[in-house]
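To fix ideas, we close by showing one paired sequence and structure record:
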Amino acid sequence: MALPINIEDLLNKRKVESNRIEFKAGWNPDKIYHTICAFATDLENIGGGYILVGVEEENGIAKRPVKGLSENEIDRIMKEMVGYDAKISPSYLTKVSPEEVDGKIILVIWAPAGINRPYSVTESVVAKKSVPKFYVRSKSSTIEAKGEILDEVRELANRVPFDERGNEAIKIDDISGVLVYEHLKTVKSKLAENFTAKPLTDVLDEMDLLTGPSENRLIKNCAAMMFCEHPEKFFPVTQVDIVLFPNGSIENPDVMIEVPKITGPVPKMIKETLSYLRTNVIKQKIMKPTDREKSDKIFNYPYQAFEEAVVNALYHRDYQEREPVEITVEPTHIDILSYAGPDRSISAEAIKAARKLKARRYRNRRLGDFLKELDLTEGRATGIPTIQKALRDNGSASAVIETDDDRTYFLMTIPCREGFEGVDYAINDKNEAINEAINEKELSLFVLIARSPNIKQKELLAVSFLSRSTVWRILKTLSSDPLNLIEYQGSKKTGGYVLTEKGAAYYHSLNQ
């Protein structure tokens, strides 16, 4: 199988926390299977982990060039693992991928968090008789679960995060092949290679987005959150509502601007929300100090504070709650409200202090993995500190967090910097006409062309899983008035579709 993430990101511990990656110079089956079991049990809900065999480390950093393994070793290890997997209980199959790095071959073992937690494995997988034990991760080490930790491990049987659960209502036709392909290409996964040669179900299986027995495979909720054009079909009111009160919601509640609701897969909602706030809410002033030549730029709101707050709201919200993420823009502050509230493992004192909020349980751990791969979040409990630092650097007051005793909501209030009173937040969307004229399927193909210049119609047809007539209609729409976003360049044999100047400008605006 191919990895759902780029191998260099694993070697350099990018996009995946370091405690989820373990380097092994050689094949040590007992210790490796203890770690596999710990990742599968996933006591801290971090999402499992990766073991890279054939990679030496020094102070937690992979030594390059890698040591590597011989082809004979790779073959022998993979055959042995078939038998060793059977010593994990309940049934759990590891995912293994040989990878070429620095001219050598290493073996990457991907152990995602299992749905039938907790897992045990025999203390020695190589011995004929051995006692089964439970293992967990403690920081960057694997330890045996004993005492209170063992009790906590056993309680995991009733706690499968919502985004990891299978959903009978989600069908394969609900998942957009274009969105899956775009994601894999963006994160530089090998699964993007020969994507069209496999059924979409096989790709989802390799991405660990299916669950259940072979006769009744279910698509996980996080697949719909990420790769469904209309996830609100399965998670009602999955949307972002933005309302502006130019004179204040208390002072003059009758004067307000309601922005059209923002819907779609989670990454799209994040990008569109941030694009709107950047274009219509953030304002800048240039201050000229008397004691030096260089001018200072200040903002009513630093963009990075919005970036972290919006991602946190959509990452940590409860997708079973029929409530939107609400953003209210006032003259003196902005409120970002999401449901439900912070996990009970976070103390009331930490919430009141509005500093670092470290949860023991992540509501949507797999969704967080996807967002990390897209560089939309770091997932190291750094969101609140980043917001507060961005506000301090801008000369703004600190953000405030509020919730109730039952933890039913999470409200973050970001204050406006002094000196920006009376700012006009009139809507200023240069691309409003295009946004209204283009639908989801057309936008998906447009983005695919933007990311794959000179792509041919047959490639679009294969990747999109749309009919030939639908693809042809979309290409005609995108290349004709009033859109004129794409054009065909080159000969019939060697040419392909590219963005026009107008299309390039529109694509740039989507990624601001």
The first helix runs from residue 7 to 11.
